[in-house]
Amino acid sequence: MSVLVFAESSEGKFKKTALEVTSYGKKVAEQMGTNLVVLTINSNETSILYNYGAEKVLTITNKALNPFNAKIYANIVKQAAEKESAQVVIIDSNANGLYFAPMVSANLNAGFASNVIALPSSTAPFTVKRKTFSNKAFNNTQILTDVKVIALAKNAYGLVENKVSGTTEEFSPVLVESNLVSTSIEQTSGKVTIADADIVVSAGRGLKGPENWGMIEELASVLGAATACSKPVSDLGWRPHGEHVGQTGKPVSSNLYIAIGISGAIQHLAGVNSSKVKVVINSDPEAPFFKAADYGIVGDAFEVVPKLIEKLKEFKANNA
Amino acid sequence: MKILVCISHVPDTTSKINFTENDSKFDSNGVQFVINPYDEFALTRAMWFKEKQGATVTVATVGNATTEPTLRKALAIGADDAIRVNTEALDGFTVAKELAEVVKNGGYNLVLAGKESIDYNGGMVPAMLASLLDFNFVNACIGLEIEGDKATISREIDGGKEQLSSNLPLIIAGQKGLVEEKDLRIPNMRGIMMARQKPLTIVESSNGAATTAIVSFEKQAAKSACKLVDADNVGELINLLHNEAKVI
């Protein structure tokens, strides 16, 4: 018996979500009275997983597993789950996790719950709370099969240190064939991505034109934040499509979301509602975003944002 | 090319979300249902393949008779025929198993769907369908070209995109980018009239057992009112974010 976590790495380093699912998996293993096993592929810093509660780490080193292939990875997780008699398999909600977690579930003939936001409220029957209706509600889902697969929503549990003296074991699974071939990968490096950011600074049509984004980028850089935009802004071509957040764009579940000159249409809010703290800066006090936000400033972005940047720089200098 | 587009019948985005029967069921009273917006991207791309490359397009959903207007809307947009698997959609896995039968029986070689439905947001049906059928699968697809038996696909990854190539058969879970929102179609009167004549086949379910069960729903807790900070005192906002919200 065990709880199995898949910890994804990128260029050998663990993503933050990998440590989050490990933290979460440790607690689930405690609830079930069993051990946590963490599976990693092509990572060279596995001992960090012990700090988050991994009693056993399975490592696979194989160049053929770069880049990610959902079918092959899903089959490997199945083999690891069977080898470790895993009752619960936990995967993160990064792009790759969302891609292959349901395949793991189908391979194991196991019930699957995605968008899980909390520890199981009960382990028998196994019940988890999930986001649903595009962040407007939650549901409590029982997984009825013997083996359970869950995908933990991003930033839902956080990192919890829980140092154990773990062991590492080499694992050499059989690789299934796949004729789905990755031909190229374009990735912006050195920039905080919306998916990974703790803070997201987002702006809308209130900015009046693409030439005014300098202050948004500066604010983001002071905060170490990712930049994002509303749908009209990406439709107008002021900002790249990859920055569009909202229902049909990227979902945001950061700790802090700052919306500048964004009115807060329901489709926008659906995509950003799971951010923990929301700040709105808008000249229109009737903008719907004020109903969804925690903090707000009614004012002209062109006056407020430069002042905010100046004050934040002072704050950062004093708290460095 | 034989295309199957999987359609989910979902409450319109602006619907009020309420629950009944002791918060155990979604209250569909007075709710307007639509084609799931992500599936609409898939359907629109399928129409392009039909018009430019002579593909046939079938739409399918798993659900009871109340889902038929949504299938008719897809027919009005231009799909050739529709299939409804006559059973309640219990969970994603059982829906995938039902659709796997539809794909096997119909001999489809391209299956298009949205990456998730906007109601249950499971994001699992296309991937499970691929595993059940052993078809290639690409999630979060933002571009798809087909030439003969070869597909070129782009998908969104964290902080960028990846290009892939695959032979058919293939399953795609699409999102914005597969087509743009301006390309989405509204059925015209001629389409609506024609849709009434198009075949809508009802098939019986293979009666798989559910693997999960939703036992209750909860609404978002009522939010406390937004704290307003004076525009001349932005330092106070920093103070609140640091000392009260503890996010900076």
Question: What characteristics describe this protein?
Answer:
heterodimer, A: Rossmann fold, Rossmann fold, B: 248 residues, alpha/beta, nine-stranded mixed beta sheet, 29% helix, globular
CATH architectural designation of chain B: 3-Layer(aba) Sandwich
Order of the strands making up the biggest sheet of chain B: 11-10-9-12-8-1-6-7-13
Number of separate helices of chain A: 8
By secondary-structure content and strand pairing, the structural class of chain B works out as alpha/beta
CATH architecture identity of the largest domain in chain A: 3-Layer(aba) Sandwich
- Classify the fold: give the CATH topology of chain B: Rossmann fold
Strand order of the largest sheet of chain A: 7-11-6-1-4-5-12
Low-confidence stretches of chain A: none
Q: How confident overall, as mean pLDDT of chain B? A: 96
Q: How big is the Rg of chain A?
A: 21 Å
Q: Describe the biggest sheet of chain A? A: 7 strands, parallel
Helix-strand string of chain A: EEEHEEHEHEEEEEEEEHEHEHEHEH
The greatest interface between two protein chains, and residues involved on each side, is: A-B, 94 and 77 residues
Write down the CATH topology of the largest domain in chain A. Rossmann fold
